Amino acid sequence: MAIWMVPVAWLILMSVRPSADILGNFEIIPSRFTFDGYRDFILKDMWYKAYLNSLTYSTLNTIFSVTLALPAAYAFSRFSFTGDKHLFFWLLTNRMAPAAVFLLPFYNMYNAVGLFDKTLGVAIAHMLFNVPLAVWILEGFISGIPRQVDETAAIDGYSLPKFFIKIFLPMIRSGIGVTAFFCFMFSWVELLIARTITSTDAKPISAAMTRTVSSSGTDWTLLSTAGVMTIIPGVLAIWFVRKYIAKGFALGRV
């Protein structure tokens, strides 16, 4: 844990040092401090808009993926139908494919339908990878709920939609939380597709960080600040679902 924290602590220290000092003498405790990086990150359109773009499409992708995966995972867990195992395996193969395989199809289709350089377009593109992952995780949590719960609710007169919303969803809220966390984080850190299908309006923060070289050179302080800011959503997300992740590991789906 301490070893993992070293580069994070070093990144935070770099974000409050002048750019010239970062490339100068090696210092564990900085001799000079500056918050210019944080000021520039908040005030410059390029940075805070890219940050908001990433938050927007990651949140949309999480909502879309979990909403679509819930009924699919329930169906795979509770019903048997022709080709169900083959279909489940096919869903997982989409998650295993390299993102580079889909760059050209997405670029071509998005230019044709007007989704290029849209945050909605990035959210939809990431569903190709996150929906199979969400189905895989949720199916494990749903299978942990006894079928007798479904049967008892049916005897009590609950329709399937009413039972699913009022009884079943609260019972698997830990699984939904873990699934939402992984969908959000995979979308947040993904660079290749997000960079290919955006240019200016929907450019993500990860792409902005690769374009920091100017005529005056690289602003290492600002780049380090952007790195610190990109860690914050992940820290907040894992804080809220930390007690549920252990259950996911116990079920073998995380």
TrEMBL record:
Biological process per Gene Ontology, one example term: transmembrane transport
A Pfam family reported for this protein in Swiss-Prot or TrEMBL: BPD_transp_1
Superkingdom per UniProt: Bacteria
Chief subcellular location: membrane
Any one GO cellular component localisation term in the record: plasma membrane
Gene3D superfamilies assigned to the protein according to its UniProt record, in alphabetical order: MetI-like (1.10.3720.10)
Protein localization: Cell membrane
Entry keyword set: Cell membrane, Membrane, Transmembrane, Transmembrane helix, Transport
Transmembrane segments: 55-76, 88-107, 119-142, 163-189, 220-241
PROSITE patterns: ABC_TM1
Ubl conjugation recorded as keyword: no
Annotated ABC transmembrane type-1 domain residues: 51-241
Topology relative to the membrane: Multi-pass membrane protein
The family this protein is said to belong to: Belongs to the binding-protein-dependent transport system permease family.
Name of this chain's protein: Glycerol transport system permease protein
UniProt source species: Candidatus Planktophila limnetica
